[in-house]
Design brief:
The structure is a single chain. By secondary structure, the chain is an alpha/beta fold. The protein contains 19 helices and 12 strands. It folds into 3 domains: 150 residues, Response regulator (Rossmann fold, 3-Layer(aba) Sandwich), CATH 3.40.50; 159 residues, 3-Layer(aba) Sandwich (Rossmann fold); 174 residues, no CATH class. Strands 2-1-3-4-5 form a 5-stranded parallel sheet, with helices on both faces. The protein is rod-shaped. The termini are far apart.
């Protein structure tokens, strides 16, 4: 049964065969286009009118304004096809009524390529068009594959007045993340959702690349289980991202999530970086979630070193390289990503964009959880970096002509780099580097000589023999028979007890356990298998090294 609907602007003779019950005038006179746009008007003010009508074919005048070049009728046809709230009504035949042919329409507007899709036709602006389609209605084709017959044959371009590709990625990502996490009752996210559901460009994207709904899939977003502090830095924090991350991390109460709430609009970059530097020094987060481009200029910048995100990485490196950085970026440029890894980032999360159809929300959240957990596991590196910098500031490192001092400096600098790498057995290598520094100090104060086929230790400056000493003479906390001979641990104990005046029991106990761990590592067949070395042990040993080197520094001043 033929049930037509006419949409017009009182500008077609075909309206004479329609009554008010099956025609709608496209009345924009009461709509305030200063505070909104055509897409919003169509979605919120006009599609509901279409939804309330009963029809199985639509006639639409190509121009629905006083300006013939404004082909609002064709734009409306797209909205009808791409509005899921219309359900089956959006698949009905659409007849575009025009005073010109399809070739000229395509010259005027690329959107006229809708005329080359199935079930969309063009007809002359007279009553004969109505009569013709009433006659052939029953044999008009029906959609059998909407994607192939419509979506794959059209292209809706990004609006020319849209700021950047970056803004599209942000709004699209906010929508996808919020939907996946089922975030509700958020004004800013609701506003973004309305924009996504109203704008023709986003309607096209949603139809072509449907967003996964977290409530309709078996995978639940994995949450980090660790403890730590996160600082989020992004010029889009107000657009919904801050709320999204707060929701994501809220399920792990031991994670403290904070946003660097800065007014980025027309910001002075130097002032911004100074304020950020102050906050970083005071809060010392374990992980920073960082956007790469934070200013308008960043989107035009071709020199990667001048990007605000890169400048922030430089500041983080200056303050504490142990702070782990996860980039949250829309970029896909391999050159920039390589630059970020050169700067020591832990990893990156790409913001969703329909141009990158290979992205999957499940994979994104798995990676996000993994990076967060890894960042917290590496949080001890902040302390390692602090100890390392404290050691390297000691005055005796100015003695550049001393090869042994240079060797100690090399070993100290290697400790953080090894621990912050992906090397296998990194804890073992770091332990050996720490012990190597102490051994070098021993060689600077104690030398070995063979007398009558026996090996003895002597103070280098005095030549006084120090081997085979009586127990407790130099080391009152001795508990082992090894303490009576000239073993490496004995030399270390004598050095720090007598020369460096470090006589507390805890330090000597740590050194004793440290030496055993080191011997187990270099002579595994001679010792029983022990538990893996831990971050706590590395920190403890590094602190003892710092204490020893500080004492040595006092001796040299």
């Amino acid at each position: 049964m033929f049930k037509p609907l006419l949409i017009h602007k009182d500008n077609t003779p075909i309206q004479n065969v329609f009554d008010t019950s099956n025609s709608i005038e496209f009345d924009t006179d009461s709509f305030d286009f200063r505070n909104s746009d055509l897409d919003t008007f169509i979605t919120t003010g006009f599609i509901p009118k279409v939804e309330n009508k009963e029809f199985n074919i639509i006639f639409i005048k190509d121009n629905l304004s006083d300006n013939y070049l404004e082909l609002y009728g064709i734009i409306l046809a797209y909205h009808i096809r791409l509005s899921p709230e219309l359900k089956e009504k959006r698949y009905v035949p659409i007849i575009i009524i025009s005073d010109i042919d399809g070739y000229i329409l395509n010259k005027l507007d690329n959107l006229a390529n809708i005329l080359f899709t199935k079930n969309t036709f063009i007809g002359q602006n007279n009553v004969s068009t109505y009569d013709y389609y009433k006659k052939v209605f029953d044999i008009l084709p029906k959609f059998t594959d909407f994607k192939k017959e419509f979506l794959d044959k059209i292209v809706v371009e990004q609006p020319k007045d849209y700021l950047t590709h970056h803004d599209i990625a942000n709004e699209w990502s906010i929508h996808t993340w919020a939907k996946f996490l089922k975030i509700k009752d958020s004004p800013v996210i609701d506003n973004n959702r309305e924009k996504i559901s109203s704008m023709l460009y986003f309607k096209y994207l949603l139809a072509k690349y449907p967003v996964q709904d977290g409530s309709k899939i078996s995978f639940a977003p994995k949450r980090p289980q660790s403890t730590g502090k996160i600082l989020y830095i992004d010029d889009q924090w107000k657009e919904g991202w801050s709320e999204i991350f707060e929701e994501y991390y809220s399920k792990t109460p031991d994670i403290k999530f904070n946003t660097f709430e800065y007014e980025y609009k027309d910001m002075n970059v130097d002032n911004f970086l100074n304020e950020l530097r102050v906050q970083l020094k005071s809060s010392m987060p374990d992980m920073i979630l960082l956007d790469l481009r934070l200013t308008k200029k960043d989107h035009e910048e071709t020199n990667h070193d001048q990007l605000t995100g890169i400048k922030i990485l430089n500041i983080i490196e200056e303050i504490n390289k142990g702070i782990q950085v996860v980039m949250f970026t829309a970029t896909t440029q391999s050159g920039i990503l390589e630059k970020l890894y050169d700067k020591g980032i832990l990893g990156y999360i790409q913001k969703e964009h329909p141009d990158r159809t290979q992205l999957n929300m499940k994979d994104t959240f798995l990676k996000f959880k993994s990076l967060t957990d890894s960042a917290f596991e590496k949080s001890y590196l902040k302390k390692i970096w602090t100890i390392q910098e404290k050691i390297l500031m000691l005055d005796f490192f100015n003695d550049t002509d001393n090869e042994k001092i240079e060797e100690i400096e090399f070993e100290v600098r290697s400790i953080f780099e090894v621990l912050n790498s992906q090397l296998h057995n990194q804890f073992v290598f770091s332990m050996l580097a720490i012990f190597k520094c102490i051994e070098i100090l021993v060689t600077m104060f104690i030398e070995e000589k063979r007398v009558n086929y026996s090996r003895h230790a002597y103070w280098i400056k005095t030549g006084e023999k120090i081997g085979n000493f009586k127990r407790n003479e130099y080391y009152p906390h001795s508990t082992s028979d090894e303490d009576k001979n000239d073993s490496t641990i004995n030399k270390i104990r004598i050095l720090i007890y007598e020369k460096f005046n470090i006589q507390d029991e805890d330090t000597h106990d740590i050194l004793s356990a440290f030496t055993k761990r080191r011997n187990s590592a270099i002579h595994p067949k001679q010792h029983q298998q022990e538990l893996p070395i831990t971050e706590e042990e590395i920190l403890e040993w590094f602190k003892v090294l710092c204490k020893i080197l500080q004492s040595y520094n006092k001796l040299t001043n």
